[in-house]
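Researcher: Excuse me, tokens okay?
***
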Amino acid sequence: MFTQVERATRDGRPALVALDGPGGIGVTAAALQFYAKYKSWFPDGALQVKLSDPDRNEMVPAGEALNGTLQNLGQAPGELPATMADRSSLLRRLLSDKRVFLLLNDAVTVSQIETFLINSPGSLVVATSRAELRGLRRLGFKRVRVGPLNAAHSAALLDASAERAWDCDDQTKAHLIAVCGGYPLALNVVASLAEEPSPGRIIKRRLERGGLELFQEDEGNPVRRPLDLVYDNLPADAAEAHRMLALHPGTQFALEAAAVLFNTSLDDAEERLRVLTRKRLVHVVDEDRYEVHAPIRVHAREVLAADPELSGRTIEVVRRVATWYLKQTVAWDQVLSDRWRVSPLYQERAGLPEDVDVETRREQRARALGALEQERENLLACVRASETAGLDELTWQFCEALWGLYHLHGHFDDWIDTHQRGLAAAERLGNRLAVMHVSAQLGSAYFAIKEYSQAKECFLKSLHVAIDEGHDFGQQSAWEWLGKIYRELNEIEEALQAFVKSEEIVRRLDSQDQARALALIRLQRGRTYLKADRYAEAAEEFYGALEYFAGTSEIDNEAKARFELAQAYAGLDALEKATETGQQALALFSRDGSSRRKGEVCRLLASIGQRQGDHTTMIDYLGQAAQHYALCDPGEAEAIRQHLVELDEDASGGSHGS
């Protein structure tokens, strides 16, 4: 591998290498060792992308993998493109002038890897997989098969991994090496036996009991037999903890989650994990957070299956752990907003007090989003585990609690996956309010990725249930969303009628939030008029929305209303009003920190400057727009810069001609 990559990278083009080998053989370790040796080749750093969960034989959706990668590159979650194709294009633009080490871990299909192919000379793309992916050859990948270590290298690794000298004879140690079959993971785990008072006796006893079978590779789990050596020597409570870790929804977990899983105290859970960590069966990620590698999880499931008492309580354990995660998720989600919810868990607790100051609210919100993001894979796995266990009540409630995270951070694949499951669960339960709510949340996901027909279907379902149940708020929300969908489908009159029906319900409800709800409807109706080039009607609606939002704490909505009003003024040729209103919107978006929105406003102000014949203003705002787009859409930024170059060339040509 080293020689091939060395040669390819020096050719001044992206090097493409495919590493494959069974779990536990050290494929990822080989790639990381290469990066460590040649780190200076990649001054812009390294990116590691998880493409599947080998433990559960599930692929990570490409859109989610791209989401995480783009965030690691500094892109704001709320400003990421919605579609996979656009995210892939953004990744290529961001890395086009970089020299990076891009590690694509645990690929299952060639199409997963194609999504991450970059055009970055001097970069290296390494794709790892359990077996050879033949289609990679046509893409220019060089295959390197990672095989077992030989006896000498195995012995060296075994000694290096042991924290004390081996107290056993050479023959016993040689037998131990043979059992490990050259797998680095197995050698690292059995090295923990060196810490035992009499490792030689332990190994001999197990070898005698296992006979020749111990040296035969298990095709289902090649590291099973060496792991058995360590597992058989665990204290009873640690052995039970190892088995129970097979029932945790994800591979990473916090100490508190382990205590819930083990159904014991924090101190007892910590002690069990301390034993498993010393035995290399659990890896410490950071303070109070742990991880179990996939081959070890496979072993945990195998020994769990051999424990009829514990395996018979699987649903009970899944319910206990999922319920704990759900309550945690509800607590975090309530910090994000006070939107209306259906789940009874939201009635048991309140969000932030109303008198909390803005800065504290912002900090708490960021902390809640960080916690949700950290546990996102576990929460997705909880939804799937709950569905599999027939725990429909938990399945749909997770969807409601996760909507805030998915909406704010653009996790569209997870959003649609969980909500399809949650909607089916709610329908099986006959919980009509849950069906109404989850189908609406699913529809908003389809709307975000511009799948408008599917979004329409979801909101019509939500509307019909709301009508049947006499649920006014559900009807009002569905009509408002249907209005937005009709607008995107260019069905302008249908959109306006939907907003009328939404407004009628709001006025009938006469709630304390009525003024705000009416302002939002006016904002949506104004956008509809704007799309139909009905500028006077649009301006009237935006001005009405501003009467509410101006001076409130809702800076984002005030900024949007001013930006839309500036567009309406521009359409009416009221260019001075358009400029003034656009500048007000820009100042508000600058406070809110939205790069994309600032770029959009600057482009509008540039176009107004052009129409006024003010070349200097146009150039200035285009330059600002390019700077803002550079933080969220490098392609758009480059297009604007190219336009500026052309304008400069035209101006130079004109001056030469005069």
The radius of gyration is 29 Å. The mean pLDDT is 88.
